[in-house]
C-alpha cells in the first residue's frame, strides 16, 4: 500500500521523470501535489500498470490533484547539458509550474539538484512507495508516450509507437539502416559498436 504523505504538516509535491534511457525524444518530468490523506485504489508505480490503466488513472490525477506540472526537455537541450542535468531541469521546471509552492519535494531516485530553497527528500523507488511520486510517474510517462507516438507518425521506420525511443533491437536496426532523425540524442551511444557520434 502506497503512503499518502511523507510528513505530517507540509504541502508535498511528488516528482518523477520518464525517458532518461532513451535514444530519441525528450526527457519528461512531472510534479504533483495531491490532497492530504489522498486515496486511490489503482494508483501505483507507472511501470506496474498497463497503458490503459495509466491513462485511466491520469484522468483521476488531473481531476483530483491540487496542482500538477509536466515539463519536456528536448533532445537538443539534453545534448547540451547531459541527460542527468536535463532530468533535474525538467523536474525543476515542472515544480515551477505548480500554482502552489510545496513545503517539501519527494524526488524519485537517489539524486537531485535543487534550484531553489524548497526542502527535498530523495526516495529510491519512491514511485512504489508514495502516491504523489506514483502520480508524477504516471503523468510523465503518459505525456511522453503520447508525444513519441505523435512524432513516430513522421518516422514510422523507428517503431517509436512501440519502443517510445528506448534502445530496442528494431530501433537500433533502423538507426543502422536510415541514420538518425532530428529527434535523436547525438551524445548518446546510439549503436553498440559506435566509434564516433553522428553529424
TrEMBL record:
Task: Tell me which InterPro entries the record gives.
Answer: RNase_HII, RNase_HII/HIII, RNase_HII/HIII_dom, RNaseH-like_sf, RNaseH_sf
The upper taxonomy is: Bacteria, Pseudomonadati, Bacteroidota, Cytophagia, Cytophagales
Q: What is the designated name of this protein?
A: Ribonuclease HII
Q: Which Pfam families match?
A: RNase_HII
**Location in the cell:** Cytoplasm
Q: What is the organism of origin for this protein?
A: Fulvivirga lutea
Cross-referenced NCBIfam families, in alphabetical order?
A: PRK00015.1-3
Q: Which family does it belong to?
A: Belongs to the RNase HII family.
Q: EC class of this enzyme?
A: hydrolase
Any one of the GO BP annotations: DNA replication, removal of RNA primer
UniProt-recorded Gene Ontology molecular function terms: manganese ion binding; RNA binding; RNA-DNA hybrid ribonuclease activity
